[in-house]
Amino acid sequence: MELTLPIHAYFHGKIVPYAEAKIGVLTHGLHYGTAVFGGIRAYWNDDEQQLFMFRPMDHYRRFLNSAKLLRMTYDHTPESLTQITLDLLRADGYHRNVYVRPLAYKGDEIIGVKLHGVRDDLSIVAVPFDRYIANDTNAHVTISSWRRLDDNAIPARGKISGAYASSALIKTDAALAGFDDALVLTQEGHISEGSAMNVFMARDGVLGTPPITDNILEGITRRSVIELAKAELGLEVIERPVDRTEVYLCEELFLTGTAAQITAVTKVDHRPVGEGVMGPVAARLRELFGQLVEGRLPKYKHWNVAVYS
Ligand code: PMP
Fold first, then answer.
1. Is 22 assigned a catalytic role?
2. Would the pTM of this model clear 0.90, i.e. be above it?
3. Percent with pLDDT over 70 in the chain
4. Any idea which fold 139-293 has?
5. Ligand 1 pocket by C-beta < 6 Å: which residues?
């Protein structure tokens, strides 16, 4: 996937040209992974000539909670961060889908592994962005030989930069072995999630997804899909531990995330999922989700924040 550089950045309290948003190589967050980030999409609706951010308040609530886990203190609220992001996106002026990346990081240029007494900095940028997983209707995943980080090591419910070294190991080993992504198991051997997405399976007509106590990131897409599956598809959705072999036997399997959106998984470790093609639940959810993120479903308008006035 090719990314173009951002046009502007929110950096040291103001919006500047991206080229001016520079940090030194000794920056704490870069060395020790003492940073947290977010990932928010904004979708272009050509009919309305409007850019809609998807659930920014929920994303920023999680972002500030992640920062709290690293003992960072900011005066910001989800509202103020959403407003800054609107200003940034208006300055950028994109008429296309974009991905917003806020980063809260320990900004001092010092040696010393700790959280206290290190300055908390904040940046936000946006880049053009479309698909993340190429095979989003027929992904092939493996079960990773890496285990998911535990809440008592690096809490997965925080989107902590250092934890993504683990996600990168999971993703790259899967990719080099020819898979689109991997499911990762908890220390106890339950399915936790993908490298950077949550997972759902349909078994005996019920939608199941690992509980937030199984070291998952509490995904905004996951939460949206749970609500949609219940309200629009009339499905029962259960958050419960998922065994490895359940994903070999289930009727449908799919991944959810801001980048991955809703990605149907049709093979796990060379075993076809159900009939080996995308199933009706994933197909219907993808259709609904695709419409609602572009602000086309009045019932879910409260999830869309319009960028341009
Ligand atoms: N798990 C991990 C580890 C992730 O990085 C992401 C992406 N943010 C998700 C799940 C999905 O979360 P969301 O739907 O909020 O993007």
1. no
2. yes
3. 99
4. D-amino Acid Aminotransferase; Chain A, domain 2 (3.20.10)
5. 39, 167, 193, 196-198, 217, 219-222, 256-258
